Amino acid sequence: MQAKIHEFEESAASAAHDKAADLVHPVHDRASEAGGQAQAQAHRTQEEASFFQQTGEQVASLAQGAINGVKNTLGYGDKK
User: What pTM was estimated for this model as a whole?
Assistant: First the structure.
């Protein structure tokens, strides 16, 4: 009789474990997918920030070149 009770307990525990795994698996998959999407978005955001920084530096350089050109034309620049 003890063996049957032990066998029943093991069977119930195994069934409960399997059911819990079935419930957790889809949640885990969605969480993993969301984490991957968040990581991809962070990477895109970082790339965009880098692009805007480089573009800003280029615009600033062009503006400084234009200012220097006007100064030189008017005789106020470093080159006389």
Answer: 0.49
